[in-house]
User: Fold these one by one.
Assistant:
Number 1:
Amino acid sequence: MQQVQELPYDLRPVNQDLRHIDGDYGWPLVGRSLELLRDPFGLFRRYHDRFGPVSRISMTGFNTVILNHPDYAEIVLKDSENNFSAKKGWEPHMAAFFEGGLVMRDFGEHRVHRRIVQNSFKRANLIQYNEKVREICERTVTRWGEKGEIYFYDEIKRLLLDIAFGVFCWVDERDKDVDAINKAFSDMMEGSIGMIRLEIPGTIYHRGLKGRRMLKEYFLRQIEKKRASDDQDAFAGFAKATQEDGSYYSDEDIANHMVFLMLAAHDTTTSSATMAAYYLAHLPEVQAELRAEIERTPRPLEYDTIFGGMPTMLGVFYETLRLHPPVPMLLRRSIRECEIGGVRIPADTMVCVPIMAIHRLPDFWNDPETFDLHRYDEGVDDPNDHPYRWIPFGAGPHKCIGLLFARMLFAHLYTELFSRYELKFARPNYFPTKLQHFPFAKPVDRLPVKLVPRAR
Ligand code: HEM
């Protein structure tokens, strides 16, 4: 019989023995999973204060090493020794939805496939998308204004659906399948973030997987048409991308990358836009500052203006992502034994980089709980600065491909919104309200707000 150690890393069982590491697994079976859902900030803080930046915990079904320090985030995410598998980190939780996506591939294979996706997010593509995104945001905010009161989270989800089909994959509105595709997409999104992951008919998870299959089949059917078209969407870019020998990537790969792109773009952006609205409605002085910047900024917003001339918008974006990173923690699995912070990490061990906790470490942030958009201003000399203390988009080989796109969308959305409206909570004494932290941050009640037309 083959020895376990001789098996390829992705076929080996996970190591669950971390007794030599300081920490506390928590309750039998569930470990600290329930606390993780209820109060993740408190949980990570407690472990950090009690056991230090490297500790052991049991959560989401695995004994896991928490690496709560920017230095250790750098080691794992940069991964200069190819020792941390993203595929094995995400697989237990997301394999069914992420199948064939970039985070489900490691090392050399990942590099090759990343090119397919990167091909559609170069500067020239983004300039092209800029116009579409602006149009969609303008139309969306007009619709919101007509309603007056909205559930911000629900509306942002719908906006992202329009972006998905208007920018990533132009769907012909006359296509007889358009309603079915929309539904498949929404079902997939719902299913992918459901907490109960049993494939039982009738459950959100089951509907989600069915939606994923339908969406993938739709993409498979469209690939030839996309290759022959002049479409400028991301999907056309994937379909036309070529490998080093000049051949196209397989249809299976293209369809899986499209599905993953939709998943990666959707809830992350929904969460960040919603959480920004949550703070902005609470902080009228920040709204006023942002509005003043918007009024000084030439419109329509050009790509270069967004990235070079809107520091207040950037501060709001950064600070929202610091306080509520849409991907709250990154998971990896070690391949070989190594040492981090003087602690031995055995082979095949789950490790967690808790972005949400690193973003509030008092050793690296002044007044970490405060929303302060000026902490990033040029000239603010922060002695605690560390390149890995702010990592909402990850870092290293798997760093988010959509970060510029996300920033562009954010800038258009809030420019349209604040140039015409003031944002207020629909209910008095709303802040703070109950937040959900996993799988993405959002107010539990979906953030009811009102848009008050600005006095001119
Ligand atoms: C605020 C919005 C977003 C946040 C906070 C975010 C965050 C992240 C993070 C943390 C990762 C790294 C995952 C890991 O290392 O395991 C990632 C990967 C990725 N993101 Fe984003 N993301 C956002 C928006 C987007 C958008 C809009 C797109 C597409 C247009 C996108 C596409 C991707 C892709 C394709 C990857 C995989 C990269 C790879 O594995 O090589 N993301 N994102």
Note: Residues 4-453 form a domain with the Cytochrome p450 fold (CATH 1.10.630.10).
Number 2:
Amino acid sequence: MSQALYRKYRPKKLEDVLGQDTNVEILQNAAKSGHLGQAYIFYGARGTGKTTTARLIAKLLNCEKRRSDPAFASLGEPCNECRECLAVDAQNSLDVVEIDAASNRGIDEIRNLKDSIKTSPASGAYKVYIIDEAHMLTGAAFNALLKTLEEPPKHAVIIMATTEFEKLPPTITSRAQRFVFRKQTKAVIMEKLTTIAKAEKIVIDPAALELIAAAAEGSFRDAEALLEQISSVDTGPKGITLDDAERITGRTGLRKVHALAALMLAKDLKGALANLSELNDEGHNLVQFTKDLIHYLRKTLSLSVNPALEATFEKDLTHDEIAAVKKLASGADTATLVKIIKALIRAYAEMRYSPFAIVPLEVMLVEQLSA
Ligand SMILES: Nc1ncnc2c1ncn2[C@@H]1O[C@H](COP(=O)(O)OP(=O)(O)O)[C@@H](O)[C@H]1O
Ligand SMILES: [Mg+2]
Ligand SMILES: [Zn+2]
């Protein structure tokens, strides 16, 4: 694995950009008919495809095969083989400029952009400027950019990417086509991780992949970086187990969270204490575990009050996990759930500053389950 996974598996076509179907459809239609816009804003959570899609647009605009072959152009994808496509991948195209507004807040870069944008493209059909972290630009830089956006040269395309859309001035946002990039569901991230693991011949238990997908909290990049980190550890001939993944990510699988939640709701004090001490012996991070437990019980509470909320949990939970929460919710009484969640939140606050993270949890279990 010589190249970072997240670079190696960066989508090469719009159709490979997962979980952003509306964006993909609109951009593909524009590419098919040769009507891509001159100003775009991509906003949303990290690691969801903003930079990837911006580079795909750069390829679509300059791809030599698209420019010389109308039948191919009507497919709405780059060829990924011509000089222009390869240059975008290698990030050395003279006509595609990536500006990181976070460094030096873009003052010099936007000044350069104002000058260089007027000159014709070197070898492509368009000059494409990708401004990352666009919300970091200074007022002066925004003003300079605004002038350009008001009257961009015909050969110029500006794509801004940001995680903080609200910080962009409305004068800027109103002049661009806006696309939101959503955090991804655990299921979609799992799907991509499974493909990568297969291609890279990484032997890994699906439960471990699931843990990684959950720990990534909606970001493909985080998931791919975690997979890479885990797969670089030698875990022996059995491959990567859930235990390995738990140890390396410092996260505990939901199965264990569920087990303790179920014992608590069944008021099984002995069982709960034994379970907790086992988690402790296995070296789990109990503070993170408690946080996960609180979130889990919160979901249980929501479902016990309103089963229709199920759909909103599909982001973080697999179908099996939702079924488990539902089962827990159907057997639990709301008042008990509320009491336990409150007590857990108190214990969590105490644990974070305690040199014995397990003690506040144990005390809480005894108080809540012995009555
Ligand atoms: N929608 C997506 N579909 C498939 N892979 C993705 C997607 N979004 C991000 N990735 C993966 O994460 C990496 C980083 O994505 P990037 O586009 O740079 O994210 P950002 O939204 O932070 O700009 C990519 O190289 C790719 O491997
Ligand atoms: Mg990015
Ligand atoms: Zn090409």
Note: The beta strands are 39-44, 96-100, 127-132, 156-162, 177-181.
